[in-house]
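Database export, one record per block. Field names are fixed; values are copied verbatim from the stored entry.
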Amino acid sequence: MRFSARCSALAAMLLAGALLAGCASNEPAPDLQEQQELYQQAQSSLDAGRYSTAVTQLEALDTRFPFGRYAEQAQLELIYAYYEVEDWEKTRAAASRFIRLHPDHPQVDYAYYMRGLGAYQAGRFSLESLELIDISKRDLGASRDAYVDFGELVRRFPDSAYAPDARQRIIYLRNVMARHELQVADFYLRKGAYVAAVERGRWVIEHYPKAEATRDALAVMVEGYLGLNMRDRAQTVLQTLIENDPDNSQLDGDTFVPKHIDVDPPLALKG
């Protein structure tokens, strides 16, 4: 009897709990309601273009409810909000975090794209937009990061909606980095470091074969070989230059015109 009575009492308690839970289920749990409010506030801020406010709200949502119902979407929105306030470092960090936490998410390609875009802007935004200097003369660490990030996006998600834009940016960055290497090669030529100039020109051809600057890399190699008094090798590269870029600025017909060294007699393509 005592056992039976205790069971009856326990059953009554469980029934009461179930009834209470059923009544409470008509309203969202306090935590869920708070998540909804924070997320809706952040959405309103984004829609209104109040990106700094959105950053604060999304950071609060992400910090307080890292595994909540809106966590993944809030992390994606935070990448965008950081980008809009031009915080390129945090854009990249947030994108990298999302990729690490959600590698199979259906929108992870967006995170890859934004990570590249953050680096792209960090590498070119301030000075290039003001046209103060040629971007190819700057340190290109961020631009190289963008090149790698966009390349990874295109490789992993070739059919992504973001892939076409990424491919165009890859072309641009490839040319920028090739031009940068040629700036270095030109410095070597001016300093008489001809071996280093030749090697830098060859490096551009090997690593950026599709870049427009590759043709100028051939001209660098011709001039470097002339500086080393290696006319036979210069002649071979000159032939390749004429075949691929007959209108190069360092060609006068079939004759090569050096920028930094005196050559006597001038180097011309053998008939």
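Remark 1: Residues 181-271 form a domain with the Serine Threonine Protein Phosphatase 5, Tetratricopeptide repeat fold (CATH 1.25.40.10).
Remark 2: The CA atoms of residues 57 and 240 lie 59 Å apart.
End of record.
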